[in-house]
Amino acid sequence: MPYRRAVSEEIRWGVIGPGRIAENVMADFAHVPGARPVAVASRSADRAAAFARRHGLERAHGSYAEILADPDVDVLYVATPHPQHHAVALAGIDAGKALLVEKAFTATTEGAREVVERARDRGVFVMEAMWTRFQPAVVRLRELVADGAIGEVRSVQADLGVARDYDPADRLFAHELGGGALLDVGVYVVSFAQMVLGAPDTVTATGSLFPTGVDAEAALLLGYADGRSATLTSSLRYPTPGQARVFGTAGWIDVLPRFHHPRTIVLHRAGADPEEITLPPLGTGYSHELAEVTECLRAGRTESAVMPLADTLAVQSVLGRAADQLGVRFREDPHVLD
């Protein structure tokens, strides 16, 4: 059944996949009124128990199936490796659990489409955990663009790269775990461009692969029928500033590093001095997406207006087209719940 809860009641959260990102997210629940984390699940009972102790959770489940069956969990934060999102999300939707699914949303475009179709069919809330869209500085950027502060937007530039020592056993480089630059950091630059420009008509990608068959670096050119464009860079092979720029016919906006969770943007208008706008996040920045999900559930919504499922599908399509051009073939993991 779809999630339904009285607006005055708290929203009870469960975590699937107690890894690094889940550890970072947990502290921000303290900044979200009406949200209470209560349970965690791992395929290792010991790992789940340790996570629950560290974060004061009531219950630790030694399998994903157990938390799906937990009647006292309203929404699940899915923080497993990318190829596991698909099966876990489908099972969560079937169990009537609302979902916040880490980016990249799935490993494949078809996997994302299936999750979205199931969520809409069942009337269950699902949102991609793209925290960038909820950062106060990015919210202000979108307001400025919508108000015409830089005229008609024509182009976006964004880069996000880190230098990582190659280790075929590490998740970042493992094909079966959805490793590579595109799904790990490329999703940020693509999502940012899609947020500003919408879905592109053409995708052109170039890059290189690690020996495990995942992409080490990727440069993307997104093209639009009316001549707009986005030039995007992602890498696990070399570091980049992590900056974004939005260009319009009457100026531009710089999103200072690192753009995927910025504190400061700089508005450059033609004929005016640059205007620096600093809007720090609450907590470490995850609080804003947690608040969005919590508020949507209390209001009975099945999608977020800030991070709608149509945008997630558009981003996954770009990632999939780029991966195809680079020769990377990701697969969803159907056995994660076995």
Question: What does it look like?
Answer:
GO terms for molecular function: nucleotide binding; oxidoreductase activity. Belongs to the Gfo/Idh/MocA family. InterPro entries: Gfo/Idh/MocA-like_OxRdtase_N (IPR000683), Gfo/Idh/MocA_domain (IPR050984), GFO_IDH_MocA-like_dom (IPR055170), NAD(P)-bd_dom_sf (IPR036291). Residues 139-253 form the GFO/IDH/MocA-like oxidoreductase domain. This protein is α/β, with parallel strands linked by helices. The protein has two domains: 11-132 and 291-307, Rossmann fold, CATH 3.40.50.720; 136-280, Dihydrodipicolinate Reductase, domain 2 (2-Layer Sandwich). The chain has helices at 20-26, 45-55, 64-68, 82-94, 109-122, 136-146, 181-197, 287-298, 309-326, and strands at residues 11-16, 35-41, 59-61, 75-78, 98-102, 126-129, 153-161, 202-209, 215-223, 229-235, 244-248, 251-255, 264-269, 275-278. Strands 8-9-10-7-11-12-13-14 form an eight-stranded mixed beta sheet, with helices on one face. It has a six-stranded parallel beta sheet with strand order 3-2-1-4-5-6. Helix 4 runs parallel beside helix 5, helix 5 packs antiparallel against helix 9 and helix 7 packs across helix 9 (309-326). The two termini are 23 Å apart. The model has no long low-confidence stretch (mean pLDDT 96).
